[in-house]
Design goal:
Rossmann fold; alpha/beta
Length: about 200
């Protein structure tokens, strides 16, 4: 597949080894429901995190995506700006991945694809999963923001009255997908206090 001929949205999903692999998995599930074409690339450490934190096997995760790319294949379609996409979501995004993207010195297809998204002025959303953060992390986030990326840590929205971890994951991922103009229909949106509808 080298051309965007279907007319439907196309998004790259990166899953790294940071804690929170379920964010990337949920993104794939929600995007499938929206009929968004997904291109998945997993870091080497992602398989470990998926196995440790979720009920999914890597084969199950790969099966949700429309296209799966080998992280070592830097000649894949998503490594070129001429391959049109609507951007890339990295969920979760490790500090190492974030730092590599910020430096522009990429060592895998995952970070190369992110670099391409930035150079083509497309939307790059990083669900960075780390705490606490030191000054170097903040400086890297500031640099990425200046480059056009959106740093969107998965912060629970307690106003949505989540009943489970699953609810919090879905809300966080739904808000990240909002940044691409994609409405999952699963986000509980704040409507204000004391507001009356007429």
């Amino acid at each position: 597949m080298t051309e965007k001929t279907s007319g439907k949205p196309r998004l790259i999903i990166g899953i790294t080894g940071a804690s929170g692999a379920i964010y990337g998995i949920r993104a794939l599930e929600l995007l499938r429901e929206l009929a968004v074409e997904t291109h998945l690339v997993l870091s080497q450490a992602a398989a470990i995190t998926v196995a440790q934190e979720t009920k999914y096997a890597i084969a199950d995760v790969r099966a949700i995506a429309d296209v799966v790319h080998d992280r070592n294949n830097v000649a894949a379609s998503i490594s070129s700006g001429s391959f049109r996409t609507d951007g890339m979501l990295i969920a979760p995004c490790s500090i190492r991945t974030m730092s590599e993207i910020a430096s522009g010195v990429t060592t895998s297809l995952l970070t190369r694809a992110a670099d391409v998204v930035l150079k083509e002025r497309r939307r790059l959303v990083l669900m960075v999963r780390e705490t606490p953060l030191h000054l170097g992390h903040f400086k890297t986030m500031a640099a990425l923001t200046e480059m056009g990326a959106v740093v969107a840590p998965p912060v629970p929205a307690f106003y949505a009255a989540p009943q489970s971890i699953d609810d919090m994951v879905t809300q966080s991922v739904g808000r990240a997908l909002d940044l691409f103009g994609l409405d999952t229909g699963k986000v509980r949106r704040w409507s204000g206090i004391g507001t009356e509808k007429k």
